[in-house]
């Protein structure tokens, strides 16, 4: 719905059973307000969050409430992709809970989030995405940070600690920092098994 600018998210109650949020607001290119209700949506059973906010005009998204539980999540593909007005995501560090370390699809996760504050992207460094052998469980970083214009240094994401870990399961990093035109320093981990 390209004309929808407000959605009363309180219509979905904390007691409702949510299992899939993929494409929930995808393509709502005029959406600027979700109200307050979504902040307590119960997501503990949701597996797929792909393209949830795709191309909305939201400026801030709050996932910090304990109701937003990502233990069952496996798909974050394009979750915030195309959110060109988005500056803040509260609770971004929760996407990879330590209680459920497993591979998740983060292709295009922040693609074209050109206004997203660099401090928010730093939250990625706290993701629990490494197994007991310190090997990254992800298979792809394709276009994950593509077009994030506010990013100035890749070390905000791949900190010195993360650079020292193993990434043998990662096969695709194409476009990972593409069009990050203000990123003057890019230091990458050793990706040893890339196919693309």
Can you walk through the features of this model?
- With about 200 residues, the chain is low in regular secondary structure.
- It has helices at about 120, 160-165; strands at about 60, 90.
- A two-stranded parallel sheet has the order 1-2.
- The termini are far apart.
- The mean pLDDT is about 95.
pLDDT averaged residue by residue: 96
Shape: globular
The proportion of strand residues reads: under 5%
What gap, in angstroms, lies between the N and C termini? 35 Å
Strand order of the largest sheet: 1-2
What is the H/E order? Answer: EEHH
User: Low-confidence parts lasting 5 or more residues at pLDDT below 50?
Assistant: none
Largest sheet features: 2 strands, parallel
Q: Write down the Rg.
A: 16 Å
Percent helix = under 10%
Quick one: how many beta strands?
Answer: 2
* Helix/strand structural class: little secondary structure
The number of helices is 2
Descriptive tags:
196 residues; 3% strand; 2 strands; little secondary structure
Reconstruct the topology from this structure.
Blueprint: E1 60-62, E2 88-90, H1 118-121, H2 160-163
Parallel strand pairs: 1-2
Question: What's the short version?
Answer:
This protein is mostly loops and 196 residues long. It has 2 helices and 2 strands; from the N terminus they run ββαα.
